[in-house]
Each structure stands twice: as C-alpha cells, then as structure tokens.
Design goal:
It is a single chain. With about 425 residues, the chain is an alpha/beta fold. The protein contains twelve helices and 26 strands. α3 links the parallel β6 and β7. The radius of gyration is 21 Å and the shape is globular. The termini are close together.
Length: about 425
C-alpha cells in the first residue's frame, strides 16, 4: 500500500490513540498477576496484538469484553513454556519484554518475528538471563531471533549494558518473581524515561525494588507477586509526535486529545522541543493545543531519551530556519531500520539538506518537492515522510504504508479528518 500526500493546511482536533508502551506493560503484568486484571482503552494495533499472542502462549487468557476493555486472566507468576514458537511480528517491545517473562517458566519457549525483528540483537539480554539462572540462546547463533529462553529464573547479580531500555525493563518486570534476589548493574542506559515508566508500573503494583538515582543499579527482592489491577491507558506521545510536527511545519492549529503531560512517556519532550522551535502550546484538561508559527527556528536537541522522535523531528528541521541538530541517539540505527540513514536518504529525495552523524542528523532548512520515497516498512518512517508531504510542493508518494498498522492503524483517517490531502492507494 502507498500513501499519496499533497500540501495541506490542517485544523481541528484529534483523539490520540493509546500508548503502545503502556499497553504492552499492562498486558505482561496482567499475565503475571494473581487473578483478573482490566486494561481500559488499550491500543489496538499489530504490536499490541503480538503481545496478546505472547501472553496467551505463555498461559494467560485475554478476553475482549469490548473494544475499550480487555480482561487479562493471569498465571499467578507461573507462566508455562509456549507449546509453539511465539511470532512477535514487528514488535521489538513484545520480544524483549516477554523474554524474561518466559524465563520464569519451567521449560523452553521459542520467539521469532519478521525480517526486521530477526536483525535486532538480543545478545546482551540473553547473556543477562543466563547469568540469572535461565537458559537463552539464538537459534542461528547471531544474537537475534529466532531465539529460545527457558527457566527457572533464579536471580543473582548481573551487569548489563542497555543500548535499548527494553532490556532493563524486561528484567525489572520479571525479576521480582524470580526464586531469589536480583542485583542489576547498568553501566550504559539509553531511553531512560521508558525505564521510569516501568518503575511507575512497579510502584503502582506495590512491587518492591531499590534503584540508584541515576538508574545504574537496581536491587530486587525475589519471591514477590503481582496483584490484579484496573488501569486506563493514556494517549501515546510517540504517535502524537506526527500530529504535533504536522501542525508545526504547516503553520496549523490542532487540538490533540488524550495526552497527559504528567505521564511518564519520554516522547512528551517533543512538545517542549517544538515550543523551543517557536510553536505556541496550550495545555488543557484532556489535551494539548498546538499552533505552528509562520517559520520554525532550528536548534539542537538531545534525543537519547526519545529515539522514536527522530523521524518526525527530522521533518520539523526541514521547515526550521537555520540548522537543526538531532544528537546523542545512536540507538536510532538499531530500530526497525537504521532510522538515521533512512531519514537522511528519503528526505534527501524530497530536496532536504540532511547530513548524517554517527549518532544523529544535521538538518538545514530546505524547500521540499514531492517525490516517490520509500517507507522501508518502518511505521515511524512512513508517518514522518507523509508529514513531510504535507509541506512539500506537488505530490509525495510513500510506499510500504501498511506498516503504520504496527502502532497507529488510524493514522491516515485521522489525518484526513483534520484536512490532510492524504489517501491510501494499492
């Protein structure tokens, strides 16, 4: 499928879909809990469906009472080994977070996924699991899926570098249920806000742990339990970033509903970044009102905590006077695609002046002209290039647009609802 986009002014309001990161944490913690948990207003997307599949394969039961309420019947901390390989599709979050959950089972579980997943390394996490008593190995001996994990997880001491925060969140979710206590040293941590999100969930579940202020050391007592819960999932700032940037680069006014600046999501920083670039932002009960200026201004932004924002912020840089530097985000090269290389190449086809750094991008203000560009089957790349098309002269066509279903199935419809000249074509 392709998205065909033409320059468009935008106006109106958008109900931002629920957070993928919160939804997946809710599902996995519900799967480990004693009794029945309720996930209210979950994200319905390919990634979260992959997590449902993983939870059920590990012994939980997920019942859809309605589109807005999912019940998770937990395993009381004793998941079973999956009888068949778990296919996580394109969901790295599901793969990494579910691996340590599977290590609580007495028996081996195999995980696989699509071509992109099979290129994403889990080597550091597998090594950590082995240090904590579990078994973990890559079927092809390359550190990537397909991989097999088995328990029981006994606890112990481990040091793990976390180029992705998902390694640490995985351990934090499952280690409280290990047979013994666990100590985790973290000499490298990217994307710290996502770890704080996991910590917030642990706090709400009344799970005990101790963390150093800089998140470099965690001490987790074993033998704990998860109580059942009911939790409403907030709007997703990672998805909202594309509407925020769309308003910014088209000089438009949009009201985004369902966002809470008090939430733990790191990508809420995109709001602050766009304010620094000249956008007017008004925080309202239940949402955020943003108005793009006549011209954005460039700046330097450290994206280490917010790597998913790189594609959208690169588009903002094209519309900003001067130079925009997106830095300290080397992990963006190890997402669904090498997003640093991909965004530089594809925005270049639209006429953007973009320079790759080892850890980011330098973007100079550039008039964009419509062209055919590749989405590389990466949902965030597809959406970012579609947003660029809202500003480009002429017509922009983005391929592999079906990838948006990974996190944001309603993206095109919601863009059309606020005036975007955007359509899906075979």
């Amino acid at each position: 499928m392709k998205l065909v986009v033409k320059a468009s002014p935008l106006a109106g309001e958008v109900a931002i879909p629920a957070s993928k990161s919160h939804t997946i944490r809710a599902l996995l913690m519900g799967a480990l809990a004693d009794g029945v948990s309720e996930v209210v207003r979950p994200l319905r997307s390919s990634d979260t469906e992959s997590c449902v599949t993983a939870c059920e394969a590990l012994g939980a039961e997920v019942t859809r009472k309605s589109d807005d309420v999912w019940e998770v019947h937990g395993t009381a901390g004793t998941p079973r080994p999956a009888p068949q390989p778990i296919d996580v599709g394109n969901s790295g979050t599901t793969l990494f977070l579910a691996m340590t959950v599977a290590a609580l089972a007495r028996g081996e579980t195999e995980f696989t996924g699509d071509e992109q997943i099979q290129r994403r390394s889990a080597a550091e996490l597998m090594e950590a699991l082995r240090a904590l008593g579990a078994t973990a190995r890559s079927v092809r001996d390359n550190g990537c899926a397909p991989l097999r994990v088995g328990g029981p997880l006994t606890g112990g001491h481990v040091s793990i570098e976390c180029p992705t925060s998902q390694y640490l969140s995985s351990l934090l979710i499952a280690c409280p249920l290990a047979g013994g206590d666990t100590t985790i040293d973290v000499p490298l941590l990217n994307e710290a806000p996502y770890v704080r999100m996991t910590m917030q969930w642990l706090d709400e579940m009344r799970v005990s742990y101790r963390a150093s202020d800089d998140l470099s050391r965690f001490e987790i007592p074993g033998g704990q339990r998860y109580a059942p819960f009911s939790r409403t999932i907030p709007g997703d700032f990672s998805s909202a970033a594309f509407f925020l940037v769309a308003a910014a680069v088209t000089g438009s006014r949009l009201l985004l509903r369902g966002l809470d600046m008090q939430d733990s999501q790191g990508d809420k920083a995109v709001v602050t970044m766009l304010e620094a670039m000249g956008c007017r932002v008004l925080h309202q009960s239940g949402g955020i009102l943003i108005k793009g200026p006549e011209e954005l201004r460039g700046g330097t932004f450290d994206l280490n905590a917010t790597p998913d924002a790189l594609p959208a912020m690169a588009v903002a840089g094209c519309a900003a006077a001067g130079v925009t530097r997106l830095v300290n985000v080397p992990q963006a090269r190890a997402k669904e695609t090498d997003r640093i290389q991909v965004m530089a190449a594809e925005l270049g086809k639209l006429g953007a002046r973009v320079e790759e750094l080892p850890d980011g991008l330098v973007v100079r203000q550039s008039p964009l002209k419509g062209a055919s560009v590749r989405g590389h089957a990466d949902h965030r790349v597809v959406m970012a290039l579609a947003v660029a098309g809202l500003r480009a002269e002429g017509e922009t066509t983005v391929d592999t647009a079906e990838a948006v279903a990974v996190t944001f199935p309603g993206f095109t419809h919601l863009m059309q609802a606020v005036g975007a000249r955007m359509e899906s074509v075979p």
